[in-house]
Structures are given as structure tokens and as C-alpha cells.
Amino acid sequence: MLSPADSERVRAAVAKAESGLTAEIVPCVFEQSSPYPESIWAGAGAGMSLAVAALFLLDMFHPLWMQLSQLILWVPAAGLLGAALGRWCGPVQRALIGGRRMEEAVARRAKEVYFDRGIANTAGRDGVLIFASLLERRVVVLADETVRAKVPAAAWDATVVAMTTLAAEGRVADGLCAAVVKAAAALSAAGFAGKPASGNELGDEPITGDGQ
Q1: Cα 71 from Cα 170, distance rounded (Å)
Q2: Whole-angstrom Cα distance, residue 193 to residue 8?
Q3: Cα dist from 33 to 16, 166, 178, whole Å
Q4: CA 109/CA 67 separation, integer angstroms
Q5: What are the C-alpha distances in Å from 82 to residues 39, 42, 78?
Q6: Spatial strand order in the sheet of 138-143
Q7: Residue 199 phi, psi dihedral angles, 5° rounding
């Protein structure tokens, strides 16, 4: 997901952005926000259902050229194929999971990272998490109370667009760097420009995870 060189580029982007801010930015990217076991079972069920339907239609319109005892083996094979697609094929996963379920999973995972990594515990209550989840193609920006009081939610739209656009092209590190720049611009415009007051409490390294 992020090579050592990619991580260093993102770290440098954060350090540069924070050098002129009183707030702190934490970029984070996960492969996915949940294991989504239901996509495997749904894929298996869909595969077997399609196989049964295909055999039924074939028997209706064309004589079967093999014994049913042999053809029926296509059903579990189709189930295995469907399960594999539901586990490893992004477009199929997204179709089986559904938008609402993905939204909920991404929001929950972002909050977990936000609190587990202490972003809500800085002295100035000025931490900002940029959370990107690749499978779901979603980005969430979570800001602590001092930032929320000054930066409207719509100000993060450019941050989200910067990340999603480049990540869709496979340029995850570029997307994180661009998102950091956009977030820094929003913070600066809201009055967070200046020398950091509480030091680099959250560090500059990007956070990564697989979501399993």
C-alpha cells in the first residue's frame, strides 16, 4: 500500500505543512475498514444461484450433454468462484456490501483510529485525522474540538477530493500528500497559521492498516 519511500514522502509533506501551523495533521490509509465476511457468503450464494439457474435454462432449451450428476458439480464450483470474487475483487465486493454498510464501516474505523492513536488527546485539542479507506473509496476527516469550532465541515471537501481523485488512479501516496496540503490550507485560512504551540505530539508518520 505504502512503500518505505512513499511513507517518507507523506511524512515529509506532514512535517512541511505543520511547520507553519498550530494544529497537527495525521494522514491514515487502510486497505479496507472491515473484513466484510458477508461479501464472501453473498458471493458464494450468488455464484451457486446463477449456476443452478443456468443449468435449469440449459435443460429447458437444449438437451444436456452430460449426466446431471456431473453437471451438478458446477454449483459448488460456482459457489467457490463467487466466494473468491466476494473476497478479493473490489468491484464485486462493493456491489455485494452496499453503500450504507461501507459508509458505516468507514465512519466506525475512522473513529477507532482517532481515539486509539490519541488524536483527541493533544494539549491544544487541535488534531486532525485524514482517514482514507481504499476498498470503499471513501475519505473521512475528523477534527478535534478546537479545530471544529473554527473550521466548517465543508472546508474539508477539497481534502477529500484530493485524496479520492489520486487514489482512484492508484496514486495513494500522492493522494495523501495532496490531502495534507489541502487540509493545511483549510487550517491556515481558519486562523491556525503560526508556530506550533504544543510541539509535535502526534508525530508525522502516516498510519496504515489492512482493516482485517
Answers
A1: 41
A2: 24
A3: 28, 19, 22
A4: 50
A5: 9, 8, 6
A6: 138-143, 127-133, 24-30, 207-209
A7: 80, 180
pLDDT at 25 over 80: yes
| Cα distance between residue 156 and residue 168, in whole Å | 18
Dihedrals phi, psi of 127, to nearest 5 degrees: -80, 145
* Residue whose entry in the numeric block shows the C-alpha cell 474505523: 109
Residue holding cell 477529500? 160
Amino acid at 165: T
Crossing angle, helix 90-97 and helix 37-61, to 10 degrees?
A: 100
Is the pTM higher than 0.85? The answer reads yes
Q: What is the per-residue pLDDT across 42-97, written as a single tens digit (0 to 9) for each? A: 888 888 888 878 777 766 666 665 666 666 777 888 889 888 898 888 999 999 99
- Residues 172 and 182: their CA atoms lie apart, in Å, by 15
CB 159, CB 139: distance < 8 Å: yes
User: How many C-beta neighbours within 10 Å does residue 134 have?
Assistant: 19
